[in-house]
Amino acid sequence: MLDIFNLSGKVAIVTGANTGIGQGIAIALARAGAAVAGVGRSPLDETQRLVEAAGGRFLSIKADLGSTEPLTRVVEEAATWGGRVDILVNNAGLIRRADPLDFSEQDWDEVIDVNLKSAFFLSQAFARRLVAQGSGGKIINIASVLSFQGGIRIPSYTASKHGIAGLTQLLANEWAAKGINVNAIAPGYCVTNNTQAIRWGTPEDMGGAAVFLASRAADYCHGTVLVVDGGWLAR
Is 220 a catalytic residue? Predict the structure, then answer.
């Protein structure tokens, strides 16, 4: 039974892997057997140490996902290093807080560009690579409980996470026939640098969900937004 969760021989790309949820997912995928290419704007030394301590292989890719320019390079670097790519986790994200009356166009654009635009175009580059290598694969988007709620003082973040939920379903419809599963995880409030005022789950709590969606156990899951929120939406 455990074999269906085994990711040995798989190569995963995890964006925003330098900290928080991305780091927790990178470690969990490595423990399940995957080689992990971590992507971030800042150094990934800590994530590399933790992945290697878990027995995994790690490649550090420096890229600013506020632009589409590096996205094809990210996929090709990972594929060259690993010999193939199999799993993409679109985790990189920004958040900006302000009253909607005062929210700036710059804050809107910066959040949408990283959270939504780069997720689509990186998924596109990744899917093109899967088609070229003649294999299926798994895309896991990181949504949020704010894919289902409005939130307060975070208009662009809320819009981006609603968009991620819809994009997950759209790409699942488009690419299921190509053997590409597109699903999402909607975390509840976790202890990260974005939520220090709120103490709830930990990034590691998302690891099991990511391993499941990346594995053969989730082969029949398409367009699912898996909520992992400690019961927040059940309130």
Answer: no
pTM: 0.95
The amino acid occupying position 151 is G
CA 138 to the chain's CA centroid:
11
* Count of domains for the chain: 1
8 A C-beta contact, residue 117 and residue 40: no
Question: What angle separates helix 118-133 from helix 155-175, to the nearest 10 degrees?
Answer: 20
Find the mean pLDDT for residues 129-143.
98
The CATH number given to whatever domain includes residue 64 is 3.40.50.720
In terms of residue numbers, what domain contains 14?
Answer: 2-234
Catalytic residue among 58, 120, 126, 157: 157
Confidence of residue 209 (pLDDT cuts 50, 70, 90): very high
